[in-house]
Design a protein that fits this description.
The chain contains 14 helices and no strands. By secondary structure, it is mainly α. Helix content is 62%, strand content 0%. It holds the Pfam family PPR. This is Pentatricopeptide repeat-containing protein. InterPro entries: BIR6-like, PPR_rpt, TPR-like_helical_dom_sf.
Amino acid sequence: MRCWIKKLSSTLAFMAIVVGYVSGGSLSKAWRTLKVMEEKGIKPNEKFYAVFVNELCKKGRNYDIIKVLNEMKASKVVIADEMIKRVISHLEKKGEMEILKEVQQLQRARMLSFRNPVEPHTLREEETITEVNFTQPGLTSPGSDPEKSPSMGFDEDVKEVSKILSSSFHWSMIQEALVKLSIKFTPEFVLAILHNCKIHGQTALNFFNWVSKQQDYNHTTETYNMAIKIAGCGESFKHMKSLFCEMK
């Protein structure tokens, strides 16, 4: 197991690592990653397992799917009705009748708990980012931060930059608008921007890269952590690794 993976401290980050291994066909490494999580006291949540199972279905790793379901049952993690339907549909299409029977037996025996199918537990974008236990010392909400830019209050600046980042799909246009701003970028300010614009994944990461090249600016552990989370949300395994290594 690579040492940089052992230093991760986030369910979301580990989820992206596991997805990367599964998609690359390295199932043994994916399972070892779960072992590392266990050793660090990080428990995979429902969303984590849902993504894991979805990737296993894509790769046709049917015995590993059963292994995950049993792992969830043993860990008392609720399996959503949506997930079990996905598994059954996949196994039926693949003609894996023996494995399908195992899933159906578990279902009939009521050994698994299912959510209401109308309200499956799918994390919202905000939950996906904020449920991860990354510390951000010294950061208050934008509206209460005492630091002010020369032109306007901290919160107004955050809103202005956030609006620019969400205004276009073309990074060149966004960059032109950013250059015209008379705002002094600080790590606290950048962290607030990244949190505000996390749903704009790639654009937020482009901003992270752009601001790192500005005069007298240096990223902190907290801004790197947020960028890693954003990359993890997009399941960008290589980008996560690159950011983590860059942070070191």
